[in-house]
Design brief:
With about 325 residues, this protein is α+β, with helices and mostly antiparallel strands. The chain has helices at about 1-40, 45-60, 75-120, 125-140, 140-145, 275-280; strands spanning about 170-175, 180-185, 185-190, 200, 210-215, 220-230, 235, 245, 260-265, 265, 295, 305-310. The chain is about 40% helix and about 20% strand. The strands form 3 sheets. The chain has a 6-stranded antiparallel β-sheet, covered by helices on one side. The radius of gyration is 26 Å and the shape is elongated.
Amino acid sequence: MLEATYNKEVKEKVDAKCDAEYQRLNAAYRQALDASLKKVAATGSLDDAVAVKNEIARFSTSNTVPATDESGATAEVAGLHKAWRTEADRIEKQRALDRKPFVAAYLERLRLLEVELTREVKIDEAMAVRTRREALMAANPVVGAVAATANATQPPLPILSTARPAERMDLYASGNNGCIVYLNHKEVMPKVMRDEPSKVRVGLHEGDIIAVKNEDRFDINSFWLSCISSNGEYLFETSPQWTCYIPGDVKKWWDIKKAKETKPVEVAPDKQEYVDLVKKSASATPLYRGAQPIRSVLKDEAEPRHTFYFYVVTRNDLLPKKAEPAAR
């Protein structure tokens, strides 16, 4: 089902546009071939005219240009090939760029499915999902690198050599404005603000889901969270690895399984309104490392003032790490 949805999205929202551009490119190429034939024929060069005529016949059946020219290709045909390849290369680069958000969202769905299957002790199915996810990451190295990085804004932190997964921890959060934090369908932070950090002690496990609703305007949405073990050790914080989404049911917005749409979050820039205040509040918490707040890129027209984020806790998140707080 996930694969079918992903393929359908890419086909309709990415490939269809590229196919249309190839149709325009090929139509222009046929016109260029006809004009070239007339031009070389007018010079009286039979060899050049035959070469272009052969290219017209070849292209009429293939609708593409070979990756490299044959050794005997004439300068006229080689020039036509080069022009076609240049435009085709532009189309393919745009295709790859347009596919990125869909690949990233699909990778996140696969990651969530892997966690869910593992928790249900469906190990073989979970391994199959992981294999598919790793293959997709290998085929899309730029997107895969982001998906595999816990925090793309800062280098990975070393895990303490004697580390064992923390069992109790404190969540610190700051946001703009009036963020609600749920843990596994249960409210744990009712109203996170930007003027001072909120704090709650919880017990986290691998596969737990943190869901957040940001109740302010879409254009100024931002949120920051960190997790510190009860022993005062750094565990994890918000990062581009988090996901924004549009809930399937706004009355049960914390249920991410039936989300209408998901995408990776983006880092909220300093120039965005109130980000400086969110960061100032975050800086008052233990082991704050200067990480930027995150923001949603998805806007639900039915809930234009609300944005939503979620994160699935990994085993690595629960291992204490060597971290130094940012200079204050």
